[in-house]
Each structure stands twice: as C-alpha cells, then as structure tokens.
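Predicting structure from sequence has reshaped protein science. With that in mind, we have picked out one protein's residues alongside their backbone shape tokens:
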Amino acid sequence: MGQQTILLAGDHVDLAGAPEDTLTPAAVLVPVTDRPRPGVILTQRTETLRRHAGQIAFPGGRLDPGEDAVTAALREADEEIALPPSAVTVVGEADRYRTVTGYTVIPVIGVVPPDLPLVPSEAEVASVFEVPLDFLLDAANHVEATVDWQGRERRYYEITWQDRRIWGATAAMIVNLARRLRWQG
C-alpha cells in the first residue's frame, strides 16, 4: 500500500475550512528551464511594493475576470519578467495553496528555453534569478521554522539558496511539489 502524501493546504490552519469563494483566485508560473540540470526561475520583489516587498516569488498574481489559472500565470510572467507566453510549454497545474493574505493560488508548471533575455518590470521586480530544480525539490533543503504572528505561533518553510531566502507561500508550494513528486534528492 502506498504512503499518503501530506500536502500543505495553506499559510494558516484557519484557512483550511474557509469557503473557496471567500478567497481571491490567483496563479503563479513555475518556469522550469529546459537544460541538462533544469532550474526554476524566481523573482525578488522590489522593496517599494505595498505587499510582499522584497520577498522571493514565482511570477504571478490575481486572475482577471474571465481568466483561468494558465492564462493568468502566463500574462503575469509576461508583465513581470517579459517571459513571452509563446516560449512556455505548459505541463499542468500543481496543488492549490491558500495564503494568509486571502488568496487561493494555483501554481502552473511550464517548461521554458534556457537563457531567455528576461527583463524585470521596474515597478514590481528587483531581480530575476534561477535556482537548480533538484536543489529546490530536495527535502534536506526544506527547513521548517516558526514565528509568532498576530498572537499565534505560525509554522512555515524556508529554503536558502546562496544569499536568498525563499519562504512563505513560495517555499510551501515548492515543498508541496516535492512531496507530490516524492522527490528523494
């Protein structure tokens, strides 16, 4: 009998029971580079943003009216890092993740050619960088941490790549992907 995969449903246990229609639908693109050692393209957000300033994230955002997750993820990646939708081969959607800020996020996995000339949107993205996929999926790099937040202890994951701290929803979606794939490292 197979072992059950335990996935992270959201940033906060109270969200697990929240009705889906009370959360804002969003999507992110998980762009995997097509090279011998595949990587994942991530962004570091600008310090001037009202929300999530300076955080590391996948390109993405809320769905516009009439959009599905794939369309939104491709549009946001184009807007944020000038990744042309035509350069992305969509593989599929990963497990939905609910954020404490009220979003229900669908990660869209896509394969992209290596070394594309990506240009960060000055208003939103401070930098664009690539992390080896095998590093991100290796459970040994998934560090569980806790913090007191709004009077409660909150658990989250961190993944440190060189001098970059990937945490929160982005790290949780990576942990879920690794668990779904049962990545052994």
About this structure: The radius of gyration is 16 Å. DSSP finds three helices and eleven strands in the chain.
